[in-house]
Write a structure and sequence with these properties.
Keywords: Lyase
Shape: globular
Strand content: 35-45%
InterPro entries: CpcT/CpeT, CpcT/CpeT_sf
CATH superfamily: CpcT/CpeT domain
Pfam families: CpeT (PF06206)
Family: Belongs to the CpcT/CpeT biliprotein lyase family.
CATH topology: Lipocalin
């Protein structure tokens, strides 16, 4: 893999991973909910793509996420990125991972 490919894909994954929430926005605008989004890298030894586990929940119910997915991030030859999103069988087993 060319190093520019890895650097750019790693940078994208770095931007996407972390803990995010809309608390401040929900306080200033009542049409927004207080939502938490967790994105963590999984399967770091795989070299076919960058893989992220994504969990989204209302902040008051973090133990009951309404969305859990796996994202496969890839850089295309022309320099663009693609994200393939997968649903998780037995998703409840992975809450809070």
């Amino acid at each position: 893999m060319p190093s520019a490919f890895v650097t750019n894909l790693n940078e994208l994954a770095d931007w996407m991973t972390g803990s995010f929430n809309s608390n401040a926005q929900s306080i200033t605008n009542e049409s927004y909910y207080d939502i938490n989004l967790e994105m963590v890298q999984i399967w770091p030894t795989r070299d076919d793509a960058m893989w992220l586990y994504v969990e989204q929940a209302v902040s008051a119910n973090l133990d009951k996420p309404y969305r859990q997915r796996v994202y496969k991030l890839e850089q295309m030859p022309q320099g663009t990125f693609t994200s393939t999103v997968y649903e998780i069988p037995n998703a409840k087993e992975y809450i809070g991972v």
